[in-house]
Amino acid sequence: MIVKPFKGIRPPKELVEQVESRPYDVLDSEEARAEAGDNEKSLYHIIKPEIDFPEGTSEYDPRVYEKAAENFRMFQDKGWLVQDKADHYYIYAQTMQGKTQYGLVVGAYVDDYIEGRIKKHELTRRDKEEDRMKHVRVNNANIEPVFFAYPDNAVLNELIMRYADTEPEYDFVAPIDGFRHQFWVISDAKDMATVTEEFGKMPAFYIADGHHRSAAAALVGAEKQKQNPNHNGTEEYNYFMAVCFQASQLTILDYNRVVKDLNGLTSEEFLAALQVNFIVEDKGTDIYKPARQHEFSLYLDGRWYSLTAKEGTYDPTDPIGVLDVDISSRLILDEILNIGDLRSSKRIDFVGGLRGLGELKRRVDSGEMRAALALYPVTMQQIMDIADSGKIMPPKATWFEPKLRSGLVIHKLSE
Questions:
Q1: What pTM was computed for the model?
Q2: What is the pLDDT of residues 296-341, one digit of tens each?
Q3: Pairing of strands 399-400, 252-253
Q4: Dist CA 341 CA 178 (whole Å)
Q5: Cβ distance 148 to 250 under 8 Å?
Q6: Distance CA 321, CA 314 (A)
Q7: In terms of C-beta density within 10 A (0-12 exposed, 13-18 middle, 19 or more buried), how is residue 64 classed?
Q8: How far apart are CA 187 and CA 168, in angstroms?
Q9: CA nearest 324: which of 358, 297, 364, 353?
Q10: 3-state secondary structure of 98
Q11: Which of 107, 134, 164, 248 satisfies CB 3.0 to 4.6 Å to 239 for a cystine?
């Protein structure tokens, strides 16, 4: 894989906690407005600039994109964001519930995405791609990073751990998620050469989170290649910003389902229908979490049930068919509940595992939802196997946590 260091645009150390933010796509406009409050230095003014307009202004209004660029220029003019004078790689560490994962911030190569060496496991929507492409174009920068995984590498791990023993450039606990975020600058020429060389030996990167941002960044880079009559391949727009983590360090949480109705069935009829393909066990009123793959938890009428998929209901040799998200979609949501399209159905909602199974219970007990289904999380190896096979994960299959904070470093598409 081809990577390069770059001259990051970053907040001064004393301003980082005022600038940094959650990613643009994990909160809506009103949440961003509330979080930014009266903080004029918040990155939300660049990544969610509709907050600078009257409430109800569409985030897709052309004026909103122009405001993003205006604010990005202002942040640099006021010294809230400052460009490094030399090319660097960076290390970004996140600590959640005592576990730390370390990512290398690099310029990833546009052609590696276009030619399929940066592998995806989700479908992207063209409208969402176009939104992010407009944002990249108007700012001439990757304001927010994408999130890649790579096969474990001992040389890179040793280098990262060496830096982790030193004083970080940034070190803070984010107010919303309560997770610790640390950041180091790699400026040593030998260390930078090692990063370039070790990534150069790898056959692929895997998109963990940020499929639309990856597509948008790469497509804008490809556009710029075509538009430049003197294009020679060394320009900054040939690269986009990614944080690359060792696959074994990543945490994937369960991504659970709540449904509004039982498709006309009584609870007894629903449980009887489940027994065709699952071993159903009543686990009582205490919250029950699935303990292994192919086991599910059902919450219905104040009770928890264990559902274990019977042999023969899935193909263990099929990287998609063996997934619990596929088994539950086929045999429960589609076959029994007649919920076929998870992307568009209004009868189902999804709950990220960070909220816990108590959130499933709450939404059913409130009467908002009729039943809840908890899944055992997919593994990073399963994601990599699917990406390698050229297949696509079912919708709403993965929930990575912690999310990358935005605003720690920005990549400009020109010198």
A1: 0.85
A2: 999 999 999 999 999 999 998 888 888 999 999 999 999 999 998 8
A3: antiparallel
A4: 35
A5: no
A6: 6
A7: buried
A8: 13
A9: 297
A10: coil
A11: 107
